[in-house]
Write a structure and sequence with these properties.
heterodimer, A: alpha+beta, 16% helix, 54% strand, globular, B: alpha+beta, 6-stranded antiparallel β-barrel, 48% strand
């Protein structure tokens, strides 16, 4: 079980940098629990004012996410340069389709265009409680 | 616990093709349950037969993945082609680092090269129960 020799670095990102990456990207993955079973779905999202917002139809995400603890992740890896990063968020999800608070209204104004087709009339907002990010570089 | 049928324009990927896609990629995300809450981590993985294997150091993944329900996901989106897909595996996590059963022996035959640095001496495998995949194209987008 010998490992490939690598020279590598790993650094933790500050929260400001995590937020910057969340703002710049629009494809992430949400992890929810459905009856004790974790599930992962890719979603198109927007981040603004400390809220991750995405749209969904009636389905597992709408049934499992609202008022529950969820996790959210974005990442990127460039095999040519060997550089990669990931941001992981833990938080609480709420349905914000009809919510009238300022944060929810702002989130609905952010453009969230789902890539996948289908009716997606519901808005889910994730309030982050913890956020962490790491950046790594590997030379194989 | 099957999710509902995909809407028109969303194409389901067959189980065989899902495994094929898993065999062609090396990076995915694992979701585990920690104190009743889901957590998600990117991992480099290897595939042997229908066993997904990743390496980890002592930590959250090693503490909470074994003998617990987990989910594993890979996806790809090509902005220029306007096409994307995702595959999700549900199953049970198993610590196959030292165990002598057939499943663990098979799992240990997988080559996994973690990209992120650090000593990762433990191997976790996924004993799958459900695999699903879907494919979508940009011209099907709903504004």
């Amino acid at each position: 079980m010998k490992m490939k020799e690598t020279s590598a670095s790993l650094e933790t990102m500050a929260e400001e940098e995590c937020i910057e990456l969340l703002v710049r990207h629009h494809l992430g993955r949400i992890a929810v629990l459905a009856g004790g079973q974790p599930l992962i779905f890719p979603v198109n999202y927007a981040y603004g004012d400390r809220l991750i917002a995405f749209r969904t139809g009636t389905g597992t995400k709408l049934a499992s996410a609202p008022n529950a603890r969820v996790a959210f992740e974005i990442d990127d890896y460039d095999p040519v340069t060997g550089a990669g990063w990931s941001v992981v968020v833990q938080g609480v999800a709420y349905e914000i389709t009809d919510a009238v608070d300022r944060q929810s209204q702002l989130a609905r104004q952010l453009l969230v265009t789902p890539l996948a087709p289908g009716q997606r009339d519901h808005w889910i907002g994730v309030h982050p409680t913890e956020m962490s990010g790491r950046r790594f570089r590997t030379t194989v | 616990m099957r999710t509902s049928k995909p809407p028109p324009g969303l194409e389901e990927i067959s189980e065989a093709e899902c495994w094929e896609l898993l065999g062609l990629h090396q990076m995915g995300r694992i979701a585990i349950v920690v104190d009743g809450k889901p957590q998600i981590f990117p991992v480099n993985y290897g595939l042997r037969g229908k066993i997904i294997v990743f390496r980890t150091a002592a930590g959250t993944k090693l503490a909470y993945a074994p003998d617990s329900p987990v989910a594993f996901e890979i996806d790809e989106y090509d902005a220029s082609a306007g096409a994307g897909w995702s595959v999700m595996v549900q199953g049970l996590g198993r610590d196959v680092t030292d165990a002598a059963d057939d499943f663990s022996w098979t799992a240990r035959g997988t080559r996994v090269y973690p990209i992120a640095p650090g000593e990762k001496l433990h191997r976790i495998a996924i004993d799958h129960s459900v695999i699903t995949g879907r494919r979508f194209r940009a011209h099907d987008f709903v504004p």
